[in-house]
Amino acid sequence: MSNWDKAKQYHQHSKHGYHGSAPGPGYMDWENQPDPFRRYDGAEIIKLKKISLNEGPLFYEALQPEKTPGLLLNFATLSQLFSDSLAISAWKSFQGSKWALRVNPSSGNLHPTEGYLICGPIEGINSFPSVSHYCPKTHGLEIRTTFSNQTWERMSEDFPENTFFIGLSSIYWREAWKYGLRAFRYCHHDMGHALAAINIAGAALGWRTQLLDHLGTEELEIVLGLHNKNDEEIEVPNCLIAVTSQESVKNIKSRDFVAGFSDLKWLGNPNFLSNDHMDWQGISEVSQATQKPYTEDFPDSDFKPGTLPNLLQEDSFPIRKAIHQRRSAVAMDGKTRISRATFYQFMATTIPEACPLPFQTFPWDPQIHLGLFIHRVDDLAEGLYFLVRNKNHLIHLKSKLKKDFTWIKPKDCPDDMDLFLLQEGDFRGMATSVSCGQEIAGQGCFSLGMISAFENASTNYGAWMYPRLYWECGAIGQMLYLQAEVSGIRSTGIGCFFDDPVCEVFGIEDRSYQSLYHFTVGGPVEDSRLTTLPPYEDD
Asked: CA quadruple 228, 231, 234, 240: dihedral positive or negative?
């Protein structure tokens, strides 16, 4: 069986349906809930600086690179980057229980994503090049190893001065504890949220990011110090990102990032997250099948991000305020409405041609489209809509969706936005039904399914593209979260949906396209029973 066949097998086995759910634990083993914080016991901890939220550009300014000048890399700006991307945003408490919320969202607030910093000497952190683990609980860096200036110069010589690197990994057990087999999907949703969070946090500083996606899993394990594995709580490296003050760097595929790392001494022992574990062999198998080999560049394409600069609207909302007050709505009020212009702004922030910055770490053509259930948008008919995020897919999509769909552009839709009304009608019940019966999907202003090119994605790339489809979904979701804050409402990611029934709504009869993530946007119902506390004790 090929690796892509193994990925497809996992995808099929992890589907929910009206007559059965994907395999799960069946109960909540609270005694073994994984620790949401990774620690490296024995490693030196460098506390980062707390940065006031009064600093930073407006939301729309940060999304347009030319409007935000690049700041110098130093202890304070690096502290801000982590504060705005992977840190704790607040604590919640209820009847003696207390839990943390983070800037980067996570399914079930379980947080399988870990972050690592590779940098040269920075005053206040280290006088030598180093690899550190970011600890959200302390807003600090745990120094895992230092290495020679020669190794750092070899890593960074093709990049602008003051470039540094961020690595991201996933611990599948954190999600599998609650969600079972489907957890692999959710971990990679979270990866996409984290990538977009880093992109946007960097944008607030005038910095750019670039995914070094020529590297394979083996190279990433060595560079991030993850080659010594705990088989029950395996931590899988996903990517390495270059953060620079300039545009992306070309011709880096031949760089040997592993040289000088193989014999380093790594400091600190990773904490055990649970005493007992439940084995999910299907997750192990799909993880192995989708490991990325060392590759050359992605295939050339004629898709050009950033070619529709006039779709974004101006606003007066500080980007860092949106980042830190972002929350997932637990329920929608079933009555809030938004304007048509606001809805179009939501759509514009998800389109790489109009808003490339959140998606700059994805070197592939956009693979994800939005199948929309519009419930309460002024001057737009209720109904089923479709946003095409890659114009090159439009003809193929029309051949795969229902033949009687209208494909009409709605009133006053921007000319360059490929948004189409497929069918008028009240789809609140349908949206609720296919989202595992969750009323939140039918009581917002709109909800959606992220419909991904599926078979062709593997044909054009490889089995390792499968998790990257979820990354793209997560990045879209992050923009929906932030735009909701700017618009004075809330949104929520929905990982539980009935896979094949969603495809049936749109008339998809094969695996050419699959639904990978759902979202809902609307007026939230606040839970007044909860107490909100600051993220860090000295705040």
From this structure: positive
Parallel/antiparallel/unpaired status of strands 490-494 and 383-387: unpaired
Please give the structure tokens belonging to residue 229: 């594995």
Over the chain (539 residues), the average pLDDT of each successive run of 10 is 96 96 93 96 96 88 86 96 97 89 96 98 96 98 96 89 96 97 98 98 95 92 89 93 80 69 93 94 97 81 76 92 96 97 97 95 95 98 98 97 97 94 98 98 98 90 95 98 98 98 98 98 91 84
Distance from C-alpha of 520 to C-alpha of 491, rounded to nearest angstrom: 6
Contacts for 395 with CB less than 8 Å, ≥ 6 apart: none
One-letter amino acid identity for 35? D
Residue 185 to residues 110, 177, 427, Cα–Cα distance (Å): 14, 14, 26
CATH homologous superfamily of 319-522 equals NADH Oxidase (3.40.109.10)
* Tokens found for residue 7: 């990925």
Selected from 3.40.109.10, 2.60.120.230, 3.10.350.10, 1.10.260.40, the CATH number assigned to the domain covering 3-289 reads 3.40.109.10
Contact 521, 491 (CB under 8 A): yes
User: CA 108, CA 100: separation in Å to the nearest integer?
Assistant: 12
Amino acid at 109: N
**Treating both helix axes as pointing N-terminal to C-terminal, what angle do 183-204 and 75-83 enclose, rounded to 10 degrees?**
140
Kindly report whether the global pTM for this prediction surpasses the value 0.90: yes
Token pair 């930073």 is found at 56
CA distance 316 to 311: 17
The encoded tokens of residue 218 equal 């083996």
Element (H, E) at 538: none
- Do the first three CATH levels of 3-289 and 319-522 match, i.e. the same topology? yes
Say if residues 297 and 361 touch (Cβ distance below 8 Å).
Answer: no
Query: What is the distance between the alpha carbons of residues 492 and 329, in angstroms, rounded to a whole number?
Result: 6
The answer to whether the CB of 193 falls within 8 A of the CB of 479 is no
Give the separation between CA 523 and CA 327, rounded to whole angstroms: 12
What lies within 8 Å, CB to CB, of 459 at 6+ separation is none
Distance of CA 519 to the CA centre of its chain: 13
Q: Give the C-alpha separation, 56 to 125, whole Å.
A: 23
Among 58, 240, 259, which Cα is nearest to 164's? 240
The domain limits of the chain are 3-289, 319-522
Instruction: Give the closest residue to 396 by CA, choosing from 297, 498, 513, 238.
Output: 513
Reduce the secondary structure of 274-338 to three states and give it as a string.
CCCCCCCHHHHHHHHHCCCCCCCCCCCCCCCCCCCCCCCCCCCCEHHHHHHHCCECCCECCCCCE
Which token pair is 264? 């380093």
Residue 4 DSSP symbol = H
Report the side by side order of strands in the sheet with 88-94: 97-102, 88-94, 531-533
SS3 label, residue 210: strand
Following DSSP, what letter does each residue of 359-382 receive, concatenated? GTT--SPP-EEEEEEE-SBTTS-S
